[in-house]
Amino acid sequence: MHLDKSYEEKVYAGVLGKIIGVYLGRPFEQWSHELIMDTLGPIEYYVNDKVGKPLIVPDDDITGTFAFVRALSDYGNRFGISSKEIGQTWLNNIVEGETILWWGGVGNSTEHTAFQNLKNGLFAPESGSSKTNGKGVSEQIGAQIFIDGWAMVCPGDPEKAADLAKKAARVSHDGEAVYGAQVIAAIESLAFVENNLGTLLETAKKQIPGDSTIFQLISDIQTWHSLEPNWEDAHKRIISKYGYNKFPGGCHIVPNHALIIMALLYGNNNFQRSMMIVNTAGWDTDCNAGNLGCILGIKNGLGGLELGPDWRSPIKDIMYCPTAIGGETITDAVREGYKLINIARGLKGLAPVQPKNGARYHFEMPGSVQGWQIMEKSTSSGTTSLQNVTGHSSLGNRSLEVGFDLRGPNFMSEVFVDTFFPKDVKDFRGLKKEVFFSYNFLCCPLIYPGQRIVAKLKAPKNIDKNIRCRLFVQAYGQSDELFKRESEAQLTFPDQDLDFSWYPEVEDGNPISRIGLKIESDSNARGKVYLDSLNIVGQPKTSFKRPSHTARFERGKIYDPPLAEMWRNGWVQATQHWDKRDVKGASFKIGNDIGRGMILTGTPDWKDYKSKANINIVMAKSGGLAVRVQGLQRYYGLEITRHNSVRLIKVLEGLKILEEVDFQMQFDRTYSFSITVRENRIKGSIDGIELIHTDKVDPLLNGGIGLLVEDGTIFTERIDINI
To answer: Helices marked H in 451-535 — which ranges?
Structure first.
């Protein structure tokens, strides 16, 4: 298949179908068909409000799907990638006990078991094999739920999709679980170019052994579909032959795979009907609906998602992918879709596509809003509208239309996008909080002091005069309440562009949580402006520290209002300890009992910069600073060690010492660390002792910063970064 606009839109539709299915099925995950019918009835639309749960949540089905496929870009975009390399991507992205997986225990959770095997040095595919873990553990559902991304980078090539799916699935699974994953991947791949369901299924069956249970299951359901006009009757047959009571474990692949095939056949190519069937049928509803939604999104395109109820507006393209790379947690379906598109292009030796010069928010997909929404609880609430439209773009083909109705000088229209921990998530209580944080929400801000917001707006020919537009940011300040900083206003003129280039000035330690657009006037006004694109550019220049409005913790003291915590939540904690109640008030006091640990922040957009800190080595085997951090297994570091040396290291497929000199380390002493990265050159300094290295083999050219500790405890008051 040509990687053209049609392909790109089908990828976006596949991503949307995936997340719609997951969000739809998550509130009643693992419920039986009978309980669903008794409590909710047939699932025709989102039901999260009926059960008091949030709609948009972090979920393993989403995070695993879009995190594990990063292996391809990490390892040079090649079809020859190995299960071992995909397993290394697990270790790079997963924060143990916190992200992506169900941490249900070794021998109980298949993915937890595989992760522990990987951590213990057992490479994939042995990490997921039935020989290692047993048939029951190795044939649960997880291989299937993470597989969609591998298919979407192989459009029209089911054999390659099934091969990649096999390699990815075998990191954690074996046997029937791998076959189920291969079938889903083959169907999705072929769905880019083929509409006939029979052809999709027969082609997928050719990718797996004919004597497998998955093969027989599909054949049975095809037969039942020809005999039974109602899905409920086919469902009864599935329960009888392939029900949960027939297989070991808590969430076996076979029964759930059966429900996907059933809903695919009985759904009559209709997205809503298919979603109704697969969700009303019960069991692992978010997983099954996610896979089926992706299939139908690819097959029927965006038009198929538009039939029936409005699936898209409530979710606004929003996705959360919390991994060790916290700067990728806040994301959206357009952004994740283009990552897959560019992996597919890389696999074919093509250059990446970067709409509107690589702008983060470009709105080039029909109907996309990329997480932008109308400001809550303000005079904009009832007077503002948002929609994606064709035209009004000097850089592309589409834009985000902001409609406003300013009924007087005190009215305004405000729209925004979250760039860090969303306020509504911070405010969750009770069941909503419990459900949202069942997969921990580790994230870093997308923008930092020192970086610039570049935006392009367009005014139509008929715009009212005296309309002013300005950008704004909101950041978490005292007691984690949001405060606002605004750019200078620009007047609109008919059929003219407005170009913004603004450095928000926010005090160090107050993480920026929103970027927004404000429209105002001194008189009544009604009209539209168009946001063409918005991007975050440049390198940060800031100090990470306890903000000035937040006192050091003092035992026994009651703080009213409470102390701010969001400044700390902007870091991913991948250490066993972070003492947040240190009696001496250290901002960053971290420890790891066994092995290496780190806390990290920043985004993959950071490239050339300098980081420095005064670090006290309380007691540790090693400690220091990390730069160009691309996860837990990909970074440069400057360390002082218990073996009386200072060294520059590179962690990539293990730890490599780049440069090292003798140095007498003393416990409970503070050392001055500084490390600079420029292109492939790394320069480090500890108390004036310099180490310089030019990395000529697979250099790491981008990434955030971190604080490293091994077998002990270290602390620092602040970490500076600048250019």
So the answer is: none
In three state form, how does the secondary structure of 186-220 look? Answer: HHHHHHCCCCCHHHHHHHHHCCCCCCCHHHHHHHH
pLDDT tens track for 592-640: 999 999 999 999 999 999 999 999 999 999 999 999 999 999 999 999 9
Closest to 398 in 3D by CA, of 432, 364, 357: 364
Please indicate, yes or no, whether the overall pTM of this predicted structure exceeds 0.70: yes
In sign, the C-alpha dihedral spanning 635, 640, 642, 644 is positive
**Which parts of the chain have pLDDT scores under 70?**
377-382, 583
Query: b/e string for 167-192 if b means 16 or more Cβ within 10 A?
Result: bbbbbbbbbbbbbbbbbbbbbbbbbb
Strand partners for 545: 718
59: closest CA among 320, 284, 315? 320
Any idea what DSSP says for residue 140?
A: B
Q: How far is CA 339 from CA 15, 345, 354, 440, 547, in A?
A: 11, 10, 10, 24, 35
**pLDDT score, position 257:** 99
Q: Which domains does the chain have, with CATH numbers?
A: 5-320 (1.10.4080.10), 373-540 (2.60.120.260), 571-722 (2.60.120.560)
CA–CA dist 141, 131 (Å, integer): 18
Scan for tokens 């969303």, then name that residue: 422
In angstroms, the Cα distances linking 215 to 206, 220, 348, 470 are 9, 9, 31, 59
Distances (CA, A) of 436 to 52, 326, 616: 12, 17, 36
**pLDDT attached to residue 588:** 97
Is 506 within 8 Å of 512 (Cβ atoms)?
yes
Tokens for 635, please give them. Answer: 């970074």
- Residue 572: strand pairing partners: 600
Which tokens in the block code for residue 134? 């047993």
What was the pLDDT predicted at 380?
A: 54
Q: In this structure, what DSSP letter does residue 571 have? A: S
CA pair distance 570, 721, nearest whole angstrom: 15
Q: What residues have CB less than 8 Å from 433, skipping those under 6 apart?
A: none
Q: Tell me which amino acid residue 491 is.
A: L
